[in-house]
Amino acid sequence: MIPGAELVLACPHCAKLARLTLPDDAEPFGMITWTDGWQTAPTLVRPPRVARCPGCQRSFWVGEADQRGFLLPGEERPPEQAGWDAAPLLAPLDEAGVRQARVEGLGSFPELELELRVLEWWRANDAFRCADAPVGHPTSDEAVANMERLIAMTADGDEDLLLFRGEAQRQLGRFDDVIETLRGVGCSDYWPAKSRLLELTATHNRKLDVLFVPKWEESEPEGHEDGPPDDGE
What we know:
Helices cover 33% and strands 11% of the residues. It has 233 residues and is an alpha+beta fold. It has 2 domains: 6-86, no CATH class; 95-219. It has a 3-stranded antiparallel sheet, with no helix packed on it. A two-stranded antiparallel ribbon has the order 3-4. The longest helix has 16 residues, at 110-125.
């Protein structure tokens, strides 16, 4: 994708135009993965999956908006694209905005509700993505209720969802439940995340934290297969 390119969309409710910044093809430098699965980087551009129309103020899934065309840097605009540059830029929703999207019915199916629940949880965690966060995990009634529902919805989920479930339980201080949930995570691809969550759980740490690259991936010779992490027994 050309750096600085934007997609022009029309709201599926009122057809108001808005611009969506598109990511570059290049891998962002300095990517950090957090214990809740969210990734950040200084240059990372992440187009929102759900947004609020700048015209009618209703929420919508970005993928359901009508795509009118692209704006490329320095490109001369034909007459039919007059006004596109002045269209508002779509911004990611904050925690309250995602919650409102659910209230408006965007989570009408279980898989959509779960996606919104995870997104709402991520946005609640954003306040704690720094070393000096005073508490380190969400505590509001709305955030706790959302985590409770997320935990219930992922009880029989795939292994990646069990990591979400275990992290939400850890943030709620349910450390025995974390260990039980993570017993269902056996895929070696998830061992680094599982090991880190178990390490934090062992010290009764509830704070959002950064995942790390395990030593066996850095130092073990090629072809070496390490065993799965201890589940806390």
